Amino acid sequence: GDSVTQTEGQVTVSESKSLIINCTYSATSIGYPNLFWYVRYPGEGLQLLLKVITAGQKGSSRGFEATYNKEATSFHLQKASVQESDSAVYYCALTPAGNKLTFGIGTRVLVRP
Amino acid sequence: EAAVTQSPRNKVAVTGGKVTLSCNQTNNHNNMYWYRQDTGHGLRLIHYSYGAGSTEKGDIPDGYKASRPSQENFSLILELATPSQTSVYFCASGDARANTEVFFGKGTRLTVV
Predict the structure, then answer these.
(1) From CA B102, how far away is CA B113, in angstroms rounded?
(2) B111 and B68 Cβ atoms separated by less than 8 Å
(3) Which residues from chain A sit within 8 angstroms of residue B107, using beta carbons?
(4) Minimal Cα–Cα distance from B1 to chain A, Å?
(5) Are the Cβ atoms of B42 and A106 closer than 8 angstroms?
(6) B32 touches B91 (CB < 8 A)
(7) Which residues of chain B have a CB within 8 Å of the CB of A28?
(8) Quick one: which of A99, B2, B14, B39 has the most CB atoms within 10 Å?
């Protein structure tokens, strides 16, 4: 079946430093799935951060970027300079089609002031 | 703004008891989903629905039933709750069109003792 593997556990980073969360995927049901990053801030539900549905394209939102790399089957999330408000749990996800999402394990990001 | 509301937000249940988790969406979305989130796992799909009267099994349906009596409401039912069902449950709704955003509720923390 389809699966998503992402950086596990917690990532701690100082404010204004860069952040990268690794995500790789395996999509057996379809060659080129749609890829997403969702974020869950404390006390909130998950919300879409960015999505890319075309291989080779880059998505960006709120200073975050992710590039759909079909050769490496990766969709790493990056931000050049994080803020304390970026502290949250980040989920990489895919859908083969439609919107039944398969999620990664989630990565907790703690930004220290 | 798209809204998905879950109730209750926290629930303690006894083993063997019946638990109903409720979800209401005001987005007029056809599709609704129930996921659970456990430490060491990403969100996993329990049941989903394509519209009123429809329920489908997701990846981990055992021990759960679902009910979609209307476009707006989607319930998750644990007929005989077990401690292994202690988890955080998320409801979500999405448009039937492919590649559109899925909107999540804030989650229900269920503890089965």
Answers:
(1) 32
(2) no
(3) 45
(4) 13
(5) yes
(6) yes
(7) none
(8) A99
